[in-house]
Amino acid sequence: MSTQVTNLEHQIVSQPDELSRLLTSERTREQVHEASEGLQRARRIWLVGTGTSHHAAILGAGMLHDAGRAAVAVSSMRFVVWAPIVGPDDMIIVITHTGETAYALAARALATNAGFNTVTITKRGTAFPHAIETTAAETAETYTVSYTTALFVLAMIAKELGAESITEDSLALVPGAVRNAIEDPGVEDIPIPERILTIAGAGPAAYTAREGALKVREGARVLAEGQDIEYLLHGSAVPLTRADRLVTLTPPDEDGFVDAVAGAASLEGIPVYRVGEPAPLPTLLAQIPLTVRLQILALRFALERGQDPDTVIVGNWADEDLWRIGRPDRH
C-alpha cells in the first residue's frame, strides 16, 4: 500500500484476518450467544459509545432493528449526564475499545450499579464481566480495526436475534469483501481538497461518511465532514465551492437520491467522486468494507501530507485531566 509503513497501515491490513478470527472463534461465539440470550428478554436495548464507538452504536442499532428489536443509540456523555428513561426490562450495550474512555466507563458503571443487564464490547484482555472481546489494543490512535470488529460483533448478535438480512452466509462474505476493499479501494483518484472534504451518504452510509471524515481529520489533519445526503441538499451544500471535494457513498441509493445530489454538485462545479461497495452484502454489512475504503483514503492523505496517523491526540488536547473528566473513579 505504501513505502512508509505506519501502525495505521498494519491495523488496516489486519482487518480481514481479525474478522475471520471472530467468525470462527468458539470463545467469541460463546460470548455473543450469552449476550444474545439476555437481549432476547430485553424490552429495549440501549447502545452507548463515544466517537467512533458511537458510530458503531448507531449502525448496531440498525442491525438490531432488522432483528425486530427496539434499539436506541446514544452517546456515552448523553447517557450519563442527560440520562434517558431506562426501564427495568431494558439492556445496555457499552462499546469501548480502549476500556478507558471516561464517559463510556461512567455509562457502564451507572448501568451496572443500577442493576441493569449490561454487555461491554471491548478490546481483548479487558477484565470486564459479560464482555465480548474484539481485537487487541490498537497501536494507532486513528482507530480502524476496533471499529470494524465491533460492527461485526454487533452483526453477529443481530443474526442470533433473527435479523432478516444478516445471516451466517452474509457474515462469511465480510472478511473477503474487506480484503477486496484493501486491495482495490477505489479512492486513488480523490485528491486532498484545497478547503474541505465532504463525504455524504444515505441511511447507514451517512454514519459511514461521519466515520470516514473522522479518520481523515484524525489521521491526515485535513478538514473533513460527514453528512447525511438529505441534510446536504437541505442547506449544508450551500457553502461548497470548486475548492472543495464531495465524495458520495453507496449503498444505499434505492431511489437515486444520492446520485441526483452528486449530479447537482457537479453542475455547480464542485468536484465529485463516487465510492461504492460492490460486494453482494446487505446494506448494513456493506458499511464495513465501505468504511475500510475511507480508512485507506485517510492513510494516503496522511502520508501525502507528511502527517503521523498513529499519534493523533497531542499538545493541550492530550491533557490527562481533560480526558479524565466524567470517569466514575475521578475525584
What's this model, at a glance?
Helix content is 49%, strand content 14%.
Describe this structure as you would to a colleague.
This protein has helices at residues 7-13, 15-24, 26-40, 52-66, 76-81, 102-113, 145-160, 168-183, 204-220, 229-236, 257-267, 283-305, 320-324; strands spanning 45-49, 71-75, 91-96, 117-122, 131-133, 197-201, 224-228, 245-250, 272-276. The protein is α/β, with parallel strands linked by helices and 331 residues long. Strand 3 (91-96), helix 6 and strand 4 form a beta-alpha-beta unit. It starts with 6 loop residues before the first helix and ends in a 7-residue tail after the last helix. The relative contact order is 0.15.
Distance between the termini: 46 Å
Radius of gyration: 19 Å
Number of domains: 2
Q: Which CATH-level-2 architecture of the largest domain? A: 3-Layer(aba) Sandwich
SSE string, helices as H and strands as E = HHHEHEHEHEEHHEHEHEHEHH
